[in-house]
Amino acid sequence: MHASSAPTRPPAPASALFSAIVEAPFGAIGIRTAAEQVCELVYLPPHFGAQDAVDATAERAAGQVARYLADADFTFDLPLAAVGSAFQQRVWAAISAIPRGSVRTYGQVARAIGSAPRAVGQACGANWFPLLIPCHRVTAAAGLGGFAQHDDEHGFHLGVKRWLLTHEGAAAGGTPWQQQAMWP
Questions:
Q1: Cβ distance 150 to 111 under 8 Å?
Q2: Distance CA 100, CA 96 (A)
Q3: I need a surface site. Which of 7, 19, 35, 74 has the fewest CB within 10 A?
Q4: CA 140 to CA 11: how far, in whole Å?
Q5: Which among 130, 106, 135 has a CA at the least distance from the CA of 119?
Q6: Taking the model in full, what pTM does it have?
Q7: Per-residue pLDDT of the chain (184 residues; tens, 9 = 90+)
């Protein structure tokens, strides 16, 4: 049989990449687990449906994500895989210290850790654990800023950031990003 005539396996559905998928008001959140740790959370567009957990860690993570989506005061307690450079971990620790309902600018975080705003923004974009490390609480000085390595003002990811900030009550402070539309 010639190699080109061999039967091919159809590609796995995108949902097979995740250990669980939790539906969210803005779409869904994909959860990846391995070795009894959460390896990554991913914001997914609305066409992704819920997917049952494939292991105990994914089930625990999915339950906690759902609790956060219902109650912004919920505190996560999940085993996270060790990822990121020492610098990224410093940025993520500073971000994790921002209280729910509050925001800090990239510049404020940079000053707190002795760095530059652009470097803080890059570390935010490299965050493997959004929600758990709440990079949505970091904004530009004069607006929303980027989110999850996206900066399209009317795009899906900035819509997620707006939803998360509103969910956490950050909108009450009259921040500049409020002037931007909630959804495209």
A1: no
A2: 10
A3: 7
A4: 40
A5: 106
A6: 0.82
A7: 444 454 554 444 555 799 999 999 999 999 999 999 999 999 999 999 999 999 999 999 999 999 999 999 999 999 999 999 999 999 999 999 999 999 999 999 999 999 999 999 999 999 999 999 999 999 988 877 767 665 666 668 888 889 999 999 986 444 544 444 332 3
**Can you list the pairs that 162-166 forms with residues at least 24 positions away whose Cβ atoms lie under 8 Å?**
163/25, 163/26, 164/131, 164/134, 164/136, 165/103, 165/136, 165/137
Q: How many CB atoms lie within 10 A of CB 35?
A: 8
3-state secondary structure of 63: helix
Query: Which two structure tokens, joined as six digits, stand for 181?
Result: 């539309």
Tokens 């959370």 — which residue? Answer: 41
Instruction: Answer yes or no: are the C-beta atoms of 121 and 145 closer than 8 Å.
Output: yes
